[in-house]
Amino acid sequence: MKKDKKKNKIVILQFRCTESEKKELLSRSYYFKSFSHYVRNVLIDNKVKGNILPPTEIIKSIDEIVLSINRVGNNVNQIAKYVNQRKGNISEPIMNEYNKRIKKLIKHEKDIKVLLQKIINKV
């Protein structure tokens, strides 16, 4: 559907709802330019599904996730340093478990980065 220019939006629609429905609709439309913009997005463009998170909240959450990933990376580096300093003193089963967990951690980190990229592309 081609977007109408703002000056063409002259038709006013009205509908009835309860006070609680009004509050819910207004709270969901809070992060849109206007209530009309929210309604058009929901009813015409089908862009809105469920609750709306403002982009600033999404970015803040992504920043927190990235910070957590960095902390895990720092911890892994500290563990790697510890293991490398004591190579001869660590038993083979412990080294195997360590290597297994590091590989799993690296895979999870890659998966998280892919998911974050998908989220960023949708914002």
Q: Can you put this structure into words, describing what you see?
A:
- The protein is an all-alpha fold and 123 residues long.
- It folds into two domains: 7-43, no CATH class; 55-122.
- 66% of the residues lie in helices and 0% in strands.
- Helix 3 (55-85) runs antiparallel to helix 4.
- The longest helix is centred in the middle third of the chain and has 31 residues, at 55-85.
- It starts with 18 loop residues before the first helix and ends with a helix.
Give the total of beta strands: 0
The ordered H/E elements are HHHH
Helicity, in percent? Answer: 55-70%
Low-confidence stretches: none
The assembly state of the depicted protein chains is: single chain
Q: Compute the CA-based radius of gyration.
A: 25 Å
Structural class: mainly alpha
* Global outline: rod-shaped
- Treating each run of at least 4 consecutive H or I residues as one helix, how many helices? 4
Q: Give the biggest sheet.
A: none
Distance between the termini: 21 Å
Mean pLDDT across every amino acid position: 78
Number of domains: 2
Beta strand %: under 5%
